[in-house]
């Protein structure tokens, strides 16, 4: 059985990936490495706790990473600091985990000749004008706006350089915004849902006209498996649903699904450097690897996500208090 190490497997996308892999790709023997930062939670792995060994540790820990990579055939690297607002407030952990962490992993992968898939974001390409047909492609120039996206861009560059200089067997993917169960309550969709469930008003940054391309986490993870199975080494693949929505439009959908008046939200000061629009051209992964998003009804996907947060208040209650305390200090 190929042995797969998943870094960041106790976070939102990583935990969904581990469960998806156990369910749909049982040929893999999966292990998780995760530092359990404020964003990681072992409860996210409860469905697979019997079959997935968990290693509590830091992706910057050279000896630990070397030991785990030495016995892996493939590494899927999700571990990162992931929230733009936090990066604006305190960039240091982003530089450490996203850059030093990826470097540490790459060196272990180089020593042990292991296959790597690096998970990244469309935010590395900067942003697009609000109106217009443009989309990011795999050859778009890097132009990150925030400390978060700058460190993700740097991590992508490290992976690309290790491919070219050392022949490391790696692929990369840059996905659009994800949603689904287990997403941390600091992020847009869970923040608004849990605000409403707690009787508080959602918070919309600035004009609300900024556009994101909302992609279900299982579609992202299916795409990662398509790349692991059939992707060309050294290549980058963009992933995204094609379903673009302004934040105001998405919030209107959440309010209506939760039977709230359309104006029952607060406008709060905008995020500094707020990227206007992200949109990915996914022609390459569709035509080369035959991947297609299966979640093509955002309203239905949101309804299922709302049902998950409604049923799992025990999971988000403590994190919610901490996240809102942080937002209060940021004035958002
Ligand atoms: P998340 O914040 O929910 O989870 C990140 C996980 O990484 C947590 O479990 C955390 O404990 C772990 N981690 C952080 N620093 C670590 C370290 N130094 N060592 C070991 N573990 C560490 O993030 P997410 O939304 O699941 O994102 C996962 C990956 O996907 C990230 O690389 C992110 O850049 C990328 N991505 C996210 C989105 C999105 O919409 N959420 C979209 C595209 C790409
Ligand atoms: O309360 C809010 N109100 C609001 O209007 C929050 C938390 C966000 N927003 C806006 C900012 C963005 O335009 O909603 C949009 C989405 O915000 P986030 O959920 O913070 O996501 P974003 O900044 O787009 O980044 C996400 O997608 C790309 C992930 O957090 C990244 O990890 C990923 O790389």
TL;DR?
The chain is an alpha/beta fold. The protein has 11 helices and 13 strands.
Structure write-up:
The chain is of the alpha/beta class. The protein is 43% helix and 15% strand. The chain contains eleven helices and 13 strands. A seven-stranded parallel β-sheet has the order 3-2-1-4-5-6-11, sandwiched between helices. Strands 7-10 form a two-stranded parallel ribbon. The protein has a two-stranded parallel sheet with strand order 8-13. Helix 2 runs parallel beside helix 4 and helix 6 crosses helix 10 (298-311). The longest helix has 21 residues, at 92-112. The model has no long low-confidence stretch (mean pLDDT 98). The protein binds nicotinamide-adenine-dinucleotide and thymidine-5'-diphospho-beta-D-xylose.
List the helices and strands and how they pair.
Elements: E1 3-7, H1 12-24, E2 29-34, E3 54-56, H2 62-70, E4 74-77, H3 84-89, H4 92-112, E5 115-121, H5 147-166, E6 170-175, E7 178-179, H6 188-197, E8 203-205, E9 211-213, E10 215-216, H7 217-230, E11 236-239, E12 244-246, H8 247-257, E13 266-268, H9 283-289, H10 298-311, H11 313-330
Parallel strand pairs: 1-2, 1-4, 2-3, 4-5, 5-6, 6-11, 7-10, 8-13
Antiparallel strand pairs: 9-12
Protein name: dTDP-glucose 4,6-dehydratase
Catalytic activity: dTDP-alpha-D-glucose = dTDP-4-dehydro-6-deoxy-alpha-D-glucose + H2O
Organism: Plantactinospora endophytica
In total, the number of domains comes to 2
Query: Nearest-angstrom radius of gyration?
Result: 19 Å
CATH fourth-tier homologous superfamily of the largest domain:
NAD(P)-binding Rossmann-like Domain
Described by the principal axes of the CA atoms, the overall outline is globular
Specify the helix fraction band: 40-55%
Q: What percentage of amino acids are in beta strands?
A: 15-25%
**Oligomeric category:** single chain
How far is the N terminus from the C terminus?
48 Å
Arithmetic mean pLDDT = 98
What name does CATH use for the topology of the largest domain? Rossmann fold
CATH top-level class of the largest domain: Alpha Beta
Q: What is the tally of helical segments?
A: 11
Main β-sheet description: 7 strands, parallel
Bound molecules: nicotinamide-adenine-dinucleotide, thymidine-5'-diphospho-beta-D-xylose
Low-confidence stretches: none
Structural class: alpha/beta
Give the SSE order as H and E letters.
Answer: EHEEHEHHEHEEHEEEHEEHEHHH
CATH architecture of the largest domain: 3-Layer(aba) Sandwich
